[in-house]
Specification:
The chain is mainly alpha-helical. 65% of the residues lie in helices and 11% in strands. The protein contains four helices and three strands; from the N terminus they run H-E-H-H-E-E-H. Strands 1-3-2 form a three-stranded antiparallel β-sheet. A hairpin with a 2-residue loop joins strand 2 and strand 3.
Length: 104
């Protein structure tokens, strides 16, 4: 059996280590900035999003409560949030379900 061939030398390992030391803080800062941007976008979407409770949803779509539950089980609409045991759906999801359900 042959021994593995090492392509680098001790000098190149030191050079790689130095490059890593230089770039790592910048990489950490980029990741932190990326997370801040993602959080900003999510917060902005949360503020701009309109939510409808289940009753308003089935009234808007023109379906019964049981049909709304069936649509949830089939994955046609998802609950965006639950507060005080009430389900809320995003307005854009409700409109999409209405179009899909009635074909308009």
């Amino acid at each position: 059996m042959q021994k593995p061939i090492h392509m680098g030398t001790a000098k190149s390992c030191c050079a790689c280590s130095r490059v890593f030391q230089i770039l790592y803080p910048e990489l950490k800062q980029l990741r932190a900035d990326h997370q801040k941007i993602c959080n900003y976008i999510l917060d902005k979407q949360e503020v701009e999003t309109k939510y409808l409770d289940a009753e308003a949803t089935w009234n808007r779509v023109g379906i019964s409560e049981s049909t709304l539950l069936r649509c949830q089980r089939r994955g046609e609409i998802t609950v965006a949030k639950v507060e005080k045991r009430k389900k809320y759906f995003r307005d854009c999801d409700v409109e999409r379900l209405k179009k899909e359900y009635w074909g308009r």
